[in-house]
Amino acid sequence: MEIRIGITNSGRELSFESSQSTAEIEKLIADALDSGKSYFTVSDDKGKMYIVPTAGLAYVEIGSEETRRIGFVG
């Protein structure tokens, strides 16, 4: 699934594909925000790990687990 994370005062967003479920990502971020942690970590399908500061978190967009369709719509 695609995950996009916006960081305040940054013109770019962090965007990557992850094999974690929507519920797992949501719980990870909610736990970090609720507990007052200064960061949380997520990993992508390729094994890269991202450390995201909670203080600069603007938004998190979690895409659906549905595969993308290829072709023309008629």
Automatic annotation (TrEMBL):
Domain of life: Bacteria
InterPro entries: DUF3107 (IPR021456)
Organism of derivation: Mycetocola zhadangensis
Any Pfam family hit: DUF3107
Protein name: DUF3107 domain-containing protein
